[in-house]
Specification:
Chain lengths: ~425, ~350
């Protein structure tokens, strides 16, 4: 695998994209005789090697050595651990077989990946999935994102160590998002186009993609948390703070609102526990720019339009908790911002959310049961929401590799 | 004053009107507090907001203590003292970043005060009785544009906006040059650029007494130039330099306007005041977020916090430093608000 950089000035972008696509197809033919099943077997072997516990410490030590962003990288490492747990040979074959894609005669020779700027580990999971269906990968990395470059390089090294031949099937490069010609060229040269980002990004690239190409777009989504009556609020708050901290509320698995079963007093008590926990970890949030502080200040003002709402934040706006008296809590998708609302006034969050027709965009739910309600209506309601991922607080940003993002099959949806 | 007495509406309206016309007729602080009591009493969402903040009439002792609402609130709430279906006019913002514009509702009295404010404000900076050329949509074509309404209220009868208007505009400028009759050009920045781009070889020397007032920026336009480049073009192509060429700063949520001086600093009439706020501390600062207080905002709220960045001098004049950028790219994340707005738009 190559991480292409610094070549844009010496070679026209279009030609570079065309050359890379041709090269990747050629390597697939030369190294594997275009046999998707052979690539799949090699991918399982390589991913298993990358995911081996003794290997993980190598790149984690590289991550920890970078003092500038050490906390973010260590936190991303937590997400990576969860993903790599799914890269054991048994887990990978279980996934492949469960989706019926073993020994497939795939015609997908080349996949184009357009990854979002907010989730550094997308490169790992997206390329791994392409390899598991026997496809080579051309990856467009976002511009000026050292975090993603870092993790892309980590994957580059790990894959090259595990299987140099397989690594030759992956090429990563940057080009500006407004270089539409290059994106169109890359889409035309590929059999499969995978896009992660905003709805606008997905639609823009869909428009550039020929209709005979397979296109999978992962657009806007949001996540929530649900805390049952009598739950251990302190533990739930610790987990929620971690869910907030990883990716700083900027991912589709970042919880926008925590719904607390009970009345406004219950929501206020959970919010108090969450504030305490956020204060404890506030030094791990990124420093806020003046523009983000202004946005958070505005959000704190907006939240106060609800009668009975309470807003609190630390002095540097590392975090902001808006506690609403009713279920219609405002959320703003801002770094460090979270809303807390009671769900005492409605029969179930599922019913309420369905009334709002939000389920179609729901990605994940962190759920902690109440003290004595293993079979509660709340639990049933949570699982009835249609989220692609339900987990305990603290695990929202750590989905397994087998996570059916956007409720799509992990591998089959790419074939 | 603790509460607003509906019977006081008439006297308050008259007092604010008189104050705008003559500063010596009243006291800014007194009028600000009485207007706050009115807004608190009649504007439900604002009352909830102020109550939440613990800033209610009687406990607020100066205009700068009156709670400001973020301009964004005009997108999501109906901040109106009258029933919205009784509004005589509704001005929309041009911003589309959140899918829906701000809505500023004005009843008949608010509209009357709006017109008084804009006329007195305009008279401070522009000559009267000159031909007014408005490079923007006419009010009939843009009934929710405060800018178009404003120019109509100022007496503009000549509007230039579409491609088909270009020859007529060139003729008007030719005529001004030939007859030496001064004109006032009130234009969006983009429309000026359009004029210059479509008459690349044409230069006019507008007669003495003319002014060029630009406003509105380049929001959503593919072609943008810096302020310096725009004023250089105005000087080169129309022969107008500051202070004859200057800017208007306004927003659909505000009834009053600010105009820039030769040094680019904005000032408003004596009935409108600006503050610069440090967003971290919410206290006054030399540089920060602009917050406006407008006595002419009769039907909504008088204090509004913008997303504009500014720097202020000791006299209360301010320079625009830009706009707080939209929050950082969120990739795949979506707020529940956005989803609600999408559903509401279906």
């Amino acid at each position: 695998m190559k991480l292409l950089q610094g070549e844009l000035a010496s070679e026209p972008l279009l030609r570079m994209v065309e050359r890379e696509a041709t090269h990747l197809r050629e390597r697939r033919g030369v190294s594997y005789g275009n046999d998707a099943a052979a690539i799949q077997r090699e991918a399982v072997r390589a991913l298993r090697a990358i995911g081996a516990p003794d290997k993980r410490s190598v790149w984690k030590s590289h991550a920890a050595a970078d003092e500038a962003t050490v906390s973010a990288r260590v936190l991303a490492g937590m997400s990576l651990d969860a993903m790599l747990d799914g890269w054991s040979e048994a887990e990978l074959w279980r996934l492949i077989d469960s989706e019926g894609v073993r020994d497939l005669k795939s015609s997908t020779a080349l996949a184009l990946h357009v990854v979002a700027a907010n989730t550094p580990l997308l490169v790992w999971s997206s390329v791994a999935r392409a390899l598991l269906i026997g496809a080579a990968s051309l990856v467009r990395l976002p511009q000026e994102s050292p975090e993603i470059d870092f993790w892309a390089r980590q994957f580059q090294d790990a894959l090259a160590n595990a299987s140099p031949k397989l690594a030759e099937l992956v090429s990563m490069t940057h080009w500006p998002s407004d270089e539409l010609g290059a994106t169109r060229e890359a889409a035309c040269a590929s059999d499969l186009v995978l896009v992660y980002g905003s709805d606008a990004t997905v639609e823009n690239i869909r428009a550039l993609t020929p209709r005979d190409k397979r296109f999978v777009g992962y657009g806007h989504r949001f996540s929530i948390g649900v805390v049952g009556t009598g739950a251990d609020y302190a533990a739930a708050a610790r987990g929620t703070a971690l869910d907030m901290l990883i990716f700083d509320q900027q991912g589709c698995l970042s919880p926008q609102i925590i719904f607390v079963e009970g009345e406004s007093d219950d929501a206020a008590r959970f919010a108090a526990a969450l504030r305490q926990e956020l204060n404890r970890v506030r030094g791990q949030f990124p420093a806020r720019s003046a523009a983000i502080v202004a946005k958070l200040r505005e959000a704190s003002m907006m939240a106060r339009f609800q009668p009975g709402a309470a807003v609190s934040h630390d002095l540097e706006f590392a975090w902001l908790v808006a506690t609403a008296p009713s279920i219609a809590a405002p959320s703003f998708g801002l770094p460090g911002y979270i809303a807390v609302a009671p769900i005492g006034g409605c029969a179930s969050p599922a019913g309420w959310l369905k009334e709002q027709s939000l389920s179609e965009r729901l990605q994940g739910v962190s759920y902690v049961a109440g003290a004595n309600d293993d079979n509660s209506a709340l639990r049933a309601a949570v699982y009835d929401l249609g989220a692609s991922y339900v987990c305990s607080p603290g695990w929202l940003q750590r989905p397994p590799f087998s996570w059916r993002e956007d409720n799509l099959d992990v591998l089959k949806s790419l074939t | 004053m603790n509460v607003h007495d509906p019977a006081a509406d008439g006297p308050l309206f008259d007092a604010i009107t008189a104050y705008i016309l003559d500063e010596r007729s009243g006291d800014f602080e007194d009028l600000a507090l009485r207007l706050f009591a009115r807004h608190f009493s009649l504007n439900g969402p604002y009352r909830d907001y102020c109550t939440n903040l613990g800033a209610v009439p009687g406990d607020v002792h100066g205009w700068s203590e009156i709670p400001a609402v973020p301009a964004r609130a005009f997108k999501l709430l109906s901040l109106s003292c009258c029933a919205v279906d009784e509004a005589a006019a509704v001005f929309y913002s041009s911003g589309t970043t959140e899918g829906q514009p701000s809505r500023h509702y004005l009843d008949q009295k608010a509209l009357a005060l709006y017109e008084i404010s804009l006329r007195v404000g305009y008279a401070r900076v522009a000559p009267g009785n000159v031909r007014l050329l408005a490079l923007m949509q006419p009010p009939a074509d843009a009934p929710h544009s405060s800018l178009s309404y404003m120019l109509g209220a100022l007496g503009a009868t000549e509007f230039f906006w579409s491609e088909g208007d270009r020859p007529r505009l060139a003729e008007a400028l030719d005529a001004a040059e030939a007859t030496r009759q001064p004109v006032a050009i009130f234009s969006t920045a983009f429309a000026l650029l359009d004029l210059f781009d479509n008459k690349p070889d044409h230069r006019w020397t507008l007669p003495q007494g003319s002014v060029v007032i630009e406003t509105g920026g380049f929001k959503g336009r593919s072609r943008q130039v810096t302020r310096e480049e725009l004023y250089s073009l105005i000087a080169d192509r129309l022969g107008m330099r500051p202070p004859q060429a200057f800017a208007e700063y306004g927003m659909s949520e505000m009834a009053s306007q600010y105009y820039s001086g030769a040094d680019g600093a904005f000032s408003g009439g004596h009935w409108v005041r600006a503050r610069v706020i440090d967003p971290l501390t919410d206290a006054d600062a030399e540089e920060g977020i602009l917050r406006h207080f407008d006595l002419a905002n009769w039907n909504s709220v008088s204090a509004i916090q913008t997303q504009d960045l500014g720097r202020m001098d000791e006299s209360g004049r301010f320079w625009l430093l830009g706009r707080a950028p939209e929050s950082e790219l969120r990739g795949c994340s979506l707020t529940m608000e956005e989803q609600w707005e999408r559903l509401a738009a279906r």
